[in-house]
Amino acid sequence: MKKRLAAVAVCLSAVLIFFALQALLTPKYITEAQEGNLLAEYYDSGKNHDVIFIGDCEVYENIDPVVLWREYGISSYVRGSPQQLIWMSYYLMEETLRYEKPDVFVFNVLAMKYGEPQSEAYNRLAHDGMRLSGSKLRSVRASMTEEESFLSYLFPLLRYHSRWSELDKNDLKYWFKPAPQISCAGYLMRVDTKGIDFIPPGQELPDYRFSGLCYEYLDKMTALCRENGIELVLIKAPSLSPYWYDQWDEQIEEYAEKNDLLYYNFLEMSEQTGIDYMTDTYDAGLHLNLAGAEKLTRLMGELLMREYDLTDHRGDAAYREEWDRIAAFHDRVKAHQEKELAENGYLSGFTYFED
Amino acid sequence: MDKIISMLRELHPDIDFETAEALVDDGILDSMDIVSLVTAIYDEFDVRIPADRILPENFNSAAALGKLVNELIDE
Amino acid sequence: MSFTSFSFALFFLVLTLLYYTVAGKKQWQLLLIAGYFFYACADPRYLIFILVTTASAYLVTMRFTALRRELGRWFDEHPELTREERKRYKEKTASRCRKWLLLAVLLNFGILFTFKYLNFFLVNLDSLFGLFGGGLPVTSVRLLLPLGLSFYIFQTIGYVADIYFGKYEAERNPFRLALFVSFFPQLLQGPIGRYNLMAPTLFASHAYDSKAVRFGLQRMLWGYFKKIVIADRLIKPVSTIGGAPEEYGGVFVLLGMLLYAAQLYCDFTGGIDITIGSAEVLGVRLSENFNRPFFSKSVAEYWRRWHITLGTWFKDYTFYPLSTSKAMMKLSKWTKGRFGPAVARRVPVYLSTVILWLATGAWHGAKWNFIVWGLGNCLVILISQELTPLYRRFYERFPKLHRSRFWDGVQVLRTNGIMCLLRTLDCYASPGAAFFAIGTIFTRMNGGALTTDALLELGLKPADIAVTAVGVLIVFAVSMAGRSGSVREKLARLPAGVRVLLFGALFFSILVFGAYGIGYDAGQFIYTQF
Question: Which one of C496, C512, C530 has the shortest CB-CB distance to A57?
Answer without folding.
Answer: C530
